[in-house]
Amino acid sequence: MFPAASRRVGVAPLAQAVRRALGLATAGSLALMSPVLLAEEAESTEALETVTVEAEALSIVTEGSDDYRVSRTSTATKLDLAPRETPQSVSTVTRAQIEDFNLDTLNDVLESTPGVTVERVETDRTYYSSRGFEISNLQVDGLRLPMPYNNVHGDIDTAVYDRVEVVRGATGLMSGSGNPAATVNFVRKRPTATPQASVTGTLGSDDHRRLALDVSGPLDDEGRVRGRLIAAVQDSDSYLDRLHRERGVLYGVLEADVTDSTQLALGHTRQRNDTDSNMWGALPLYDSAGNPTDYDRSTSPAPDWSYWNGETQRSFVELTQRLSDDWSLKGTVTHLDMVSDTELFYIGTVPDAVTGRIPNSFYLSKYDRHLEQWVADVHAKGDVEAFGRTHQLVLGSDWSQSRNQQSSLYAAATEDLPPLDEWDGDYPEPDFGDPDFVNDATIKERSVYGTGKLDLADRWTAVVGARMSWLDTVGKQYGSSQDTTLDNELTPYAGLIYDVTDRASLYASYTEIFNPQTEMDRSGQYLDPIEGASYELGLKADVFDGGADAALAVFRTEQNHVAQPDGRVNGREAYKAADGITSEGVELTLAGELTPGWQASAGYTYLEVEDAEGEATNTYIPRHLVRATTSYRPASLAALKVGARLRWQDDIERDRDRDDGKTRQDAYALVDLMASYDFSDSLTGSLNVNNVTDEKYLTSLKWDQGFYGAPRHVMANLTWSY
């Protein structure tokens, strides 16, 4: 019917490609270094003139430095703004943080991000939340990407990214929907002007093995053409019974200065995830008498035949034209092709309170999925002189089309299960028949937008903008028609900033919320779009002699038609819409260098989410949350770096689906430690110990099932770099 990821192929083809790439690493490095070598051997040592197109201010990079902060960002508005000039809460996980703490996946990164909760509902499906609501806005290099179902399947590898920026609060101006949670922007690594190369090997607990290659530099004598190749392969068992994962990623990008004012970039990423004995759903959290269950951390409800294999390929073309000293034009087209193939086992009931056995109430299912997306954006950015002051403007338009095809097959369960902590995963593998459902839906969205940073007076700045959107959905999901049209949907944005001093600013921002949903009710119909408004007041300051950014934010969000869990239908999650949902809270953040050699990124969040009756809702999201990472490189021993990471949250709970009880997870703290040592300019070793105190905890209570997080585990890395 459509392409599918083969169960038996695995990551072998990609692994072979990566191994070939590793074999060519030395030759590639020499090729990239050839201009330098030739220049050194020449009698005349005149420096080569490098032509660089002054495009947008996204040339900021964090790799190669110990910094835990960035000086500028454009995720919230596409304007080139310092953190203090952005009237919203912004956090960045830099390359130094990623490497210090082995944050190899998006889940790892967002677990280190202030104000963000990672909901690992299963081994291969994850939701993210901020300010009480699900995150549904993703960007790559500032280009918005649709995110069907508001979750991520598999792990997104961070090897290809320089940093991950997170703007909390509604960002409908740039993301196309005013989701009040947050927008996550992946910033790709780009070719470097000088040659560089690195190879990193990792060994860890549960037979964890990883090998990564990164080669970059100029490809011609003038440096007008530059390239970069990144490859990584990973293979690991798990603390969870039977679970095995393989992952591979390959990324190549070329940049060329076509003229002195024109730059062209081409890139492609391929990532494959293969998982055996993955979960579909998770462990029952209580038994037939309502007593809480308490399994070993390794217990899994997955049989030995279940799997979830997937492959994602993303290509992009980017053209930047400098129109004048003050104006540039940028156009980007990206194509995403994602296929997945699964055979799954879901436990649809709870264990007997006396015997621990689970009666035959299981969903055995097979899903084949193909998601194809096209996204295009063109915008102009520049300065305008008016009323004796300089203002910054962005005018643009974007378009996207997403087609989601999925077949659903089901089989009858034949046997009960023994107590899960005694089960070895042996269960009859079914013979799936013809598809019960064939889903095929296409979503088209087009928008025009404009935003500006207006210099009102010596200490007053306004950031204002608006987006007009048109949305069409055509197709069927689970046998129900999904044909809808939304026209002329306006999303305004306004922010005001007052510079109290040269290092401190007060701000206020407001944006309306209009967020189409992909959640479906029990009859298979999409829920109406979320509507509402988001408000934020805050104070931002440069602290520690300008080495760090500190921020205090107070926020409130009001929404209608918010998706709330409503049980399961034929093995899928169903939702109902709730009106009058409000979220309010306080955030404190700090990021940067506190003293020479001491880097830190930390945040505290207080949150309240209530329904129209004033009752607490979304209680699976912690009301108090702390995220902190820190590292120190002593001046007296600059080769050494030590660090720690803290993830703390307070109690969470959820109402049970089958009785009037509640399931609770007590407050817990996860502490990770790291140390690295530079044996030479080109060789570095590091050691990471995660969950040092060996805390036992449930990863999420978003659903009426859950599983336990990883126990204490260790990883060792060795990196050669040039």
Automatic annotation (TrEMBL):
<feature type="short sequence motif" description="TonB box">
    <location>
        <begin position="50"/>
        <end position="56"/>
    </location>
</feature>
<dbReference type="GO" id="GO:0015891">
    <property type="term" value="P:siderophore transport"/>
</dbReference>
<keyword id="KW-0410">Iron transport</keyword>
<dbReference type="GO" id="GO:0015344">
    <property type="term" value="F:siderophore uptake transmembrane transporter activity"/>
</dbReference>
<keyword id="KW-0472">Membrane</keyword>
<dbReference type="InterPro" id="IPR012910">
    <property type="entry name" value="Plug_dom"/>
</dbReference>
<dbReference type="InterPro" id="IPR039426">
    <property type="entry name" value="TonB-dep_rcpt-like"/>
</dbReference>
<dbReference type="InterPro" id="IPR010105">
    <property type="entry name" value="TonB_sidphr_rcpt"/>
</dbReference>
<keyword id="KW-0732">Signal</keyword>
<dbReference type="InterPro" id="IPR010916">
    <property type="entry name" value="TonB_box_CS"/>
</dbReference>
<keyword id="KW-0675">Receptor</keyword>
<dbReference type="InterPro" id="IPR000531">
    <property type="entry name" value="Beta-barrel_TonB"/>
</dbReference>
<dbReference type="GO" id="GO:0009279">
    <property type="term" value="C:cell outer membrane"/>
</dbReference>
<feature type="domain" description="TonB-dependent receptor-like beta-barrel">
    <location>
        <begin position="269"/>
        <end position="692"/>
    </location>
</feature>
<dbReference type="InterPro" id="IPR037066">
    <property type="entry name" value="Plug_dom_sf"/>
</dbReference>
<feature type="signal peptide">
    <location>
        <begin position="1"/>
        <end position="39"/>
    </location>
</feature>
<keyword id="KW-0813">Transport</keyword>
<comment type="similarity">
    <text>Belongs to the TonB-dependent receptor family.</text>
</comment>
<keyword id="KW-0998">Cell outer membrane</keyword>
<feature type="domain" description="TonB-dependent receptor plug">
    <location>
        <begin position="83"/>
        <end position="182"/>
    </location>
</feature>
<keyword id="KW-0798">TonB box</keyword>
<dbReference type="InterPro" id="IPR036942">
    <property type="entry name" value="Beta-barrel_TonB_sf"/>
</dbReference>
<keyword id="KW-0408">Iron</keyword>
<keyword id="KW-1134">Transmembrane beta strand</keyword>
<keyword id="KW-0812">Transmembrane</keyword>
<protein>
    <submittedName>
        <fullName>TonB-dependent siderophore receptor</fullName>
    </submittedName>
</protein>
<dbReference type="GO" id="GO:0038023">
    <property type="term" value="F:signaling receptor activity"/>
</dbReference>
<dbReference type="Pfam" id="PF07715">
    <property type="entry name" value="Plug"/>
</dbReference>
<keyword id="KW-0406">Ion transport</keyword>
<dbReference type="Pfam" id="PF00593">
    <property type="entry name" value="TonB_dep_Rec_b-barrel"/>
</dbReference>
